[in-house]
Write a structure and sequence with these properties.
With 172 residues, this protein is mostly helical. Helix content is 77%, strand content 0%.
Length: 172
């Protein structure tokens, strides 16, 4: 299985409607967005599907190292390898991937947010940064697109939070 096939399978098996929209993109953009999506699924799953917080934190630490290896041209995971092939074509920045991991780490330690500004930081890390990376992949000519991508990421994440209130409350 190639790294691209791994990412495509990860996206397809997620059950998200995003996968189908990716299919209409030109090949390079499709592979890049699927690699980004697969990365987000991997780190999100580390938090959501690993019941031991210590193991989840170790998994995120591993992904942090994998991102550094990816940007150094030494990726070991299929997602890292797929991302490595897209980094320079789309000017993707390493710090954004680390920031997504920072947001996932917040899920391990923070269960309530005392003020909106704290929640906004979380939303920025787990969603707005994904919007910024997506904008780089999709391409844009107007710098205002980046502001729109940030706000759209925030809106998506707030919608997800509202949608999951019951489930999250049941989990504490």
């Amino acid at each position: 299985m190639t790294p691209q096939q791994y990412c495509r399978d990860k996206a397809a098996k997620s059950g998200s409607s995003f996968y189908y929209s990716f299919l209409f993109l030109p090949v390079k953009k499709r592979e890049a967005i699927m690699a980004l999506y697969a990365f987000c699924r991997e780190v999100d799953d580390a938090v959501d599907e690993i019941s031991d917080p210590l193991v989840a934190a170790q998994t995120l630490a591993w992904w942090r190292q994998e991102i550094s290896r990816t940007f150094a041209g030494q990726a070991t995971h299929p997602v890292g390898k797929a991302l490595a092939e897209t980094l320079h074509d789309f000017d993707l920045h390493e710090e954004y991937f680390h920031e997504i991991i920072d947001g996932m780490e917040m899920d391990l330690t923070q269960h309530r947010y005392p003020a909106y500004k704290n929640l906004a930081l979380y939303c920025h890390r787990v969603a707005s940064v994904v919007g910024l990376l997506s904008a780089q992949i999709f391409g844009f000519s107007d710098r205002k697109t980046l502001k729109f991508a940030e706000k759209l990421g925030l809106a998506f994440q707030l919608t997800n939070i509202i949608r999951d209130v019951r489930e999250d409350a049941e989990r504490g």
